[in-house]
Amino acid sequence: MTGLPDGTRLAPPELAAGRELALARLRELYGSWGYLPVEVPALELFDAHHPRETQAFKLTDRGSDVLALRSDFTPALAHLVSTTYPAVAGGAHHPLRLRYAGTVWHANHPDLAGAREFTQVGIELVGVSNARADAEIIHLARESVRAVGLAPRLEVGNPAYVRALLEAAAVPREQAPTLADAIDRKDRADVLALVGALGLTGRAAEAIVRVPDLYGDESVLDEARALAPSDAALQAVDRLEGVLAEFEDASELLLDLGLARRLSYYTGVTFRAFTFDYGQPLLGGGRYDGALLPYAAGFSLGLERLMEAVPTAGPVDLAPLVLTLDDPAARRLRAAGVRVARALAAEPAAAEAEARAARVPFLLVAGELRTVGAPSADVEARRRELAALLAAPGEGEA
Amino acid sequence: MSAQALVLALPKGRVLEDALAALRAAGLELTMSEDERALRHDGPGATVLVMRNADVPTYVELGVADAGVVGRDVLLEHGSRLYAPVDLGFAACRLSLIRPAGASGPVRRVASKYPRVAAEYLRRLGSPAEVVELSGNVELACLSGLADAVVDVVQTGATLRANGLTEVDVIARSSARFVVNRAALKLKAGVLRPLVAALRARAEG
After folding, report:
1. What structural domains does chain B harbor?
2. CA distance linking residue B70 with residue B18, whole number of Å
3. Which residues make Cβ contacts (< 8 Å) with residue A194, sequence separation at least 6?
4. A228 to A159, A172, A221, A257, B52: CA distances (angstroms)
5. Which residues contact A235 (CB under 8 A, 6 or more apart)?
6. Which among A337, B4, B87, B94 would be 20 to 30 A from A374, CA to CA?
7. Angle separating helix axes B14-25 and B189-204, nearest 10 degrees
8. First-to-last CA distance in chain A?
9. Beta carbons within 10 angstroms of residue B58's beta carbon
């Protein structure tokens, strides 16, 4: 059979190289903040209680077990924590910083670009729950966007506030998700209709109607406090304020008290990152204490989505810089990170023609660096750089 | 696109005039091209993209348009999670289950331009009826025997009465909503926040 399954894509070098570089930068970022790599299987046992159960690509194992392709890293990481660090999974306060990157598959709901297979990259900070931990995750989310050269803006909220409003208004359990969803969509007409239908009145009802508009700078915290009908609501505002206090410059954070996405999963501060001129969120995450682990927060990003937001600055230069006729000095250039390919022609003249045809600017033959093609100031500057690398004594050569 | 220049997705047809009137009354300077075939209109206050109403959620969700105007019926069918901060009030209608007058037998097949809404409604009722998607003149399905009920928009009910059909159950009430892309509301809050307030003041005043 030819072709590709629906929602999968091939990545030619221009795309793959960009993603590889972005991934390397993200790994370096998370690593430099003390996050340790973990790996989890792409094949999982199908679990009807998995948070993304409806997304599962199912397979049948040799026996009769139903398997599922990994649809989300977080549940798998929680599994890893519970088997490797049982004390943390049991509620011990001990910070674990973990990072991951790999493919996930969503069988049923392709994203707007139609993808069903994508690369998920993310971190989790497990075993601790306080404003400093929340802020660390948000900071790294912001730096992740910067790492690929984009200007980050993060919407930050605390669904605990909306949950407190629904509790204070005594919204019946069955109706709570519908009302929370209307609040999250800032759908004023739906919110008003539900508040009316449920007969909600008083302070909590007023706060429910107004909370979708509580977005903007720090001043919304005062408004949220003035509207708060309960101690739980006040605590949610305090926590958000505590997170903000951790930032020297919080100008890239946009507060939104109306965030009420996946209210049964996210228990604390949640956030999403955006950038200008790109209408989709680049990443999302938050605190989910008690959902899969006693204390945990994290975020994940879709690498392909993130790279889609990066404007392409012309064709990427992936061609080798130097062609060599098995010159031993090539080792020095390669050690310095210069792309040096082998000439497939064996004669110097043929190798030079080969370099010219492949638009490789330099040929290294018998210890000598030749400029192939038209010389220019730029080419000459590069030649000097390469010559300096060749002249410098290599490691252990003295 | 500069940081604060707006792009709006508006549906062609009757709603377009009402939408333009509402947006202009809210202080947006919109210039529409004289050319009736024009699909894109660049004005001082915003660029207006004119499209089929069912496409509005897609344009706004992808952020190609920052905001738009579309009926709640379309949002429900699209399963959209766009911000919908203003009920503009016009283009009011009901999404209803419609049957031939006097029909009393079980519903086995429902025709609709709103297959998702219809299926969700039938599921809620516990009905095993199947849904057939049609693209227009859905009432004909009832009159020709293709289906024994339809789910469609009812405005005045005149078309139904003229064809011997009755509105059996109201599934949802709809009117035009001002919808906003989730990123745009935050990144272009400088223009969108006052626009939302002005639209609301007019619609709710």
Report:
1. 6-91+175-204 (3.40.190.10), 93-173 (3.40.190.10)
2. 11
3. A175, A178, A179, A182
4. 13, 19, 10, 11, 42
5. A160, A164
6. A337
7. 110
8. 58
9. 16
pLDDT at residue A249 tops 50: yes
Q: Report whether A276 contacts A295 (CB < 8 A).
A: no
Q: Output the CA–CA distances (angstroms, integers) from residue B80 to A200, A305, B141, in the order listed.
A: 26, 19, 27
Q: What is the pLDDT of residue B113?
A: 95
Q: Kindly report the pTM of this predicted structure.
A: 0.89
Alpha helices by DSSP H, listed for chain A, are 13-32, 73-84, 86-89, 131-147, 159-168, 176-184, 188-197, 202-210, 219-227, 231-245, 303-308, 330-335, 348-357, 377-391
Per-residue pLDDT tens over the stretch A207-224:
999 999 999 999 999 999
- Rounded to two decimals, the ipTM of the complex is 0.90
DSSP category for residue B122: H
Q: H or E stretch including B153?
A: strand B149-154
DSSP letter assigned to residue B107: P
d(CA A265, CA A263): 5
For residue A139, CA distances in Å to A32, A134, A153, B56 come to 13, 9, 11, 35
Domains of chain A, start order: 13-308 (3.30.930.10), 322-391 (no CATH)
A153 near B CB under 8 A:
yes
Q: Is B7 on the interface with A (CB under 8 A)?
A: no
Whether A256 contacts chain B with CB within 8 A: yes
Name every chain B residue with its beta carbon within 8 A of the beta carbon of A223: none
Other CB atoms within a 10 A radius of the CB of residue B128 amount to 10
CA distance B101 to chain A (A): 30
d(CA A210, CA A371): 69
**Residue A155 φ/ψ region, left for φ over 0, alpha for ψ in the -120 to 50 degree band, beta for the rest:** beta
A63, two tokens: 């026996």
